């Protein structure tokens, strides 16, 4: 699920952090910039693994920050295609099922990748898997574990830069939502037009399948109703 | 910003859990505050990994398992276990034949049910079980002693 990504960047250390040891100040700034953010084509950055090289500190005119060139490795969440992961159901829409891992919530199962016999139940607004052993409701409220296989990872350039993460005492879920939409680009275009409160497509989306044997709802530790081999 | 290597190394869940816990421990010891967003993310990752099947697995056990599974011969003329399958096994800790079928491509053709059962036994022996499984095994042992 996780890979190490080696990177090089110029990290500005604000003047207020200069009293701290250099490596600590640098690692704090790196984590502040990259944690919970998506790097296009790479994945969701989790935390700093190690700092390999610390360059000299450069000071530019009319800028109190000290800019340090750093070579470091980040732990990045990027599941490989074919990986089998356990998550919990986040929400159901007629378009498909969304699964969450807690720190990452943009895992999508389209209807054609669900078990045969899955239907959208209008009354309960849920996906239901109908089999000869009974019906199983894929209900987010239960938070029951679901095993899925990754079929694809999609990176989308976000059209507008996201809002900055909110203040320290804000709701933790908000920080996560805001952080995930951020896309790091060299030249961020200037914002034009009105700000609209629309739900953006996620910058990093994982497409998954719960169709095959051994996948789907995991009940009581045994994948109870999923495959004919068990029964 | 320049990405030097997109995939310097692939980490298994056990390694990430150990790393993230040690980061947390160091941060609390040193007293220096990490950025809020980093703390939140690492807490969520710890929460996810600790509720997964491989929460008690250590990197040493994974190394040991890789060593043992590498020696596992497939049926004649078939491919041995691929890297992604090894990683899947280490992360997932399969305990049933069904789980192995979902992890290993063409499992029955490449290994046959007997060797797959042996693989499961090996996984259960080497990788430490998550808490609910351990307590179930304890209960079973107590029942056997009582009867």
Automatic annotation (TrEMBL), chain A:
Keywords: DNA-directed RNA polymerase, Nucleus, Transcription
Domain RNA polymerase III subunit Rpc25, residue spans: 83-217
A biological process term (GO) from this entry: transcription initiation at RNA polymerase III promoter
Major localisation: nucleus
A GO cellular-component term linked to this record: RNA polymerase III complex
SUPFAM superfamilies in UniProt: N-terminal, heterodimerisation domain of RBP7 (RpoE), Nucleic acid-binding proteins
Subcellular location: Nucleus
Keyword Nucleus: yes
Superkingdom of origin organism: Eukaryota
Location of the RNA polymerase Rpb7-like N-terminal domain: 9-63
Residue numbers spanned by region Disordered: 160-202
InterPro entries referenced in this protein's UniProt entry, alphabetically: NA-bd_OB-fold, RNA_pol_III_Rbc25, RNA_pol_Rpb7-like_N_sf, Rpb7-like, Rpb7-like_N
Protein family: Belongs to the eukaryotic RPB7/RPC8 RNA polymerase subunit family.
Name under which the protein is recorded: RNA polymerase III subunit Rpc25 domain-containing protein
UniProt source species: Guillardia theta (Cryptophyte)
TrEMBL record, chain B:
A Gene Ontology term for the protein's cellular component: RNA polymerase III complex
GO molecular function: nucleotide binding
Alphabetical keyword list: DNA-directed RNA polymerase, Nucleus, Transcription
Gene3D superfamilies cross-referenced by the UniProt entry: 1.20.1250.40
Keyword Nucleus part of the UniProt annotation: yes
Pfam families referenced in this protein's UniProt entry, alphabetically: RNA_pol_Rpb4
InterPro entries xref list: HRDC-like_sf, Rpb4/RPC9, Rpb4/RPC9_sf, RPC9
GO biological process: transcription initiation at RNA polymerase III promoter
Top-level taxon of origin: Eukaryota
Keyword Transcription applies: yes
Signal peptide: none
Principal subcellular localisation of the protein: nucleus
Locations listed in the record: Nucleus
Family: Belongs to the eukaryotic RPC9 RNA polymerase subunit family.
UniProt protein name: DNA-directed RNA polymerase III subunit RPC9
Source organism phylogeny: Eukaryota, Cryptophyceae, Pyrenomonadales, Geminigeraceae, Guillardia
